[in-house]
Amino acid sequence: MRRALAEAARGLGSVEPNPLVGAAVVRDGRLVGLGHHARFGGPHAEVVALDQAGEAARGATLYVTLEPCCHFGKTPPCTEAIRAAGIARVVAAIPDPYPKVAGGGLAALRATGLAVAVGCEAAAARELNAPYLKRVTTGLPFVTAKWAMTLDGKTAVASGESRWISSEASRRLVHELRGRMDAIVVGIGTVAADDPLLTARPPGPRSAVRIVLDSAARLPLSSQLARTAREVPVLLAVTERAPAHRCQELTRSGCEVLPLPGTGPVPILSLLEELGRRELTNLLVEGGGRVLGSFLDAGQVDAVAAFVAPILEGGDHPRTAARGQGRARMAQAMRLLHPEATPVGEDILIRGRLPQPWRVQAGFTAD
What we know:
Oligomer: single chain
Low-confidence stretches: none
Radius of gyration: 23 Å
Shape: elongated
Number of helices: 13
Mean pLDDT: 94
Strand content: 15-25%
Strand order of the largest sheet: 10-9-8-7-11-6-12-14-13
Distance between the termini: 22 Å
Order of helices and strands: HEEHEHEHEHHEHEHEHEHEHEHEEEH
Largest sheet: 9 strands, mixed
């Protein structure tokens, strides 16, 4: 199963909105087939592993990281392929909560006389597919907050200038992260200060939609985002404050204008609901502090990737990674689950996930 999980991870960024799935066929203690779901619309992991195993699959055990599908979608049901291959036993890491599967795949296999076991390496399988599980369970994308800061917690100097806090090695890693995302979110303040392009360089397996929280539709037509909107999608989340003529100008430039309710800041939950309807799975929030604070206030940050540089800025100003409402007491502060600290060039990358309520609903038990 661990081999199958490692194989599943190879599809990261290429299979969404589908889940990451790996499969291994074992006969008489020997691995005879290994495969993963490599691209959206392509063969599922079980089929790839069974094809590799060939006749050796007859009477073998199939290990798969997610319950096999039992419905016709872009590909036929994997349960039929498993039955036709002569597999004797199926070991699945976790059930698939997708409504068209949701236990039906396991039931179909048992109905044909196969031995079925569920739960092997379940915790690792859930963490691997946390973005998929969140979207299927809640209808919302999985949100990763990313920032770079100094050792004293600053994301810029008082003027807003921030190039460069992090090392070149960290910036390369950020581009790799962008290349696996469905969308990247910044606020109009970040656009005004940095005029970012928000693309992955070099390109990754995905080309992320660039989303700007811009309630009053202030994005300059001369910005890099507006000028490249016909090449890489730009979505402007606006509210009722946005003047109609500005929305029309930005639409003509190639941007998509998404009107959301209210006259204040962009409502985060309404935005995420719309992105979920579009089947976006992975969302990267890059800043600034008010934007990240608004996601935290809405309870919609699922993971953190913070690059801490060994430099001190020392200023008395509010250029910090997250602002928003905050917490009244330190005991109420959000603590990362299973945090990891990794050296990246001169920096330290701190990663972890937050204990959101949907994790319990999706079967996470180690939080």
